[in-house]
From TrEMBL:
Domain Cysteine-rich: 25-106, 156-241
Annotated protein name in UniProt: Fe-S oxidoreductase
Cross-referenced Pfam families: CCG
GO molecular function: oxidoreductase activity
Organism: Edaphobacter dinghuensis
Gene Ontology CC terms: cytosol
Length: 268
């Protein structure tokens, strides 16, 4: 059975389960958010608790292994696959505020488990991955929601990160969530599906190409006159923010979860 069919079944079942009932959601925070952007994790918790769900944080979680895998250290990433399974195997749903980390899990964990011929790990990965969701995906597809009760009275534009767009096929889900935010002035970004040029070590190994792509992205952002640029991945936003800061534009970057966590009380 294809992943898309499995996920469709899981999404439908979860949406039915979530109809007025509280879920026990496990948060996989990711390395970037844990060390550099803790407000994103706090915002995920705030949104999910506002919706009536319980959020758990397995303290033994570590990296998903993407950085190791993408730089050729596939064997070194294997213990991290096992670690993830061990930490989250009992979760009703695993929510991840990063499409690149979820793409790593869904695209590579099954292949990695199969390559070492570990039948138990293969079965564990296959059982767990349908319950793993990128944050916006969990809200729109998992819970069937668009309006999460957010308030964010600012002019905002949205950048679609590559992994969310191409690997997870999030489509317009994040935009539908943003359009439902009260007070927001959401302006379209020209070339919103165009890569920002980060790509992890791509930005280091291909610095000139990365810089050219980043320049096009920041120019498009500035043309919107937005106060903030949002996305589902802080890795993209960190890359974009560096350029915006160097140009002294005053435009900030903010993860989608932080916008959705906004409320009228906090805005006063």
């Amino acid at each position: 059975m294809r992943w898309g069919n499995i996920l469709s079944i899981e999404f439908n079942a979860l949406a039915c389960t979530a109809g007025g009932l509280a879920l026990r959601v496990s948060l996989f925070i990711t390395c970037y958010n844990d060390t550099l952007f803790p407000e994103t994790g706090k915002s995920v918790v705030k949104v999910l608790e506002r919706l009536g769900h319980t959020v758990e944080f397995p303290a033994g979680q570590t990296c998903c292994g993407q950085m190791h895998y993408n730089t050729g250290y596939q064997s070194e990433a294997m213990p991290l696959v096992q670690r993830f399974v061990d930490q989250f195997r009992e979760a009703e749903a695993v929510v991840v505020p990063s499409s690149s980390c979820v793409a790593m899990m869904k695209d590579h964990y099954p292949k990695m488990a199969a390559e070492i011929g570990d039948a138990k790990l293969i079965a564990d990965v296959d059982a767990l991955l349908p319950r793993v969701y990128e944050f916006s995906e969990f809200l729109t597809r998992g819970l069937g929601l668009e309006d999460v009760g957010a308030y964010y009275p600012h002019r905002v534009t949205y950048h679609a990160s590559c992994h969310g767009l191409r690997n997870l096929e999030l489509g317009d889900g994040p935009l539908r969530l943003l359009k439902a935010v009260r007070g927001i002035d959401l302006v379209p970004l020209e070339g919103l599906e165009q890569c920002c040029g980060f790509g992890g070590t791509f930005a280091v190994k291909n610095a000139d190409v990365s810089s050219a792509m980043l320049s096009e992205k920041t120019t498009a952002i500035l043309n919107t006159k937005a106060e903030a640029c949002t996305a589902c991945d802080n890795s993209c936003l960190m890359h974009i923010q560096g350029a915006l800061h160097r140009q002294r534009t005053g435009v900030k970057t903010v993860h989608l979860a932080e916008i959705l966590a906004g409320d009228e009380g906090a805005a006063r």
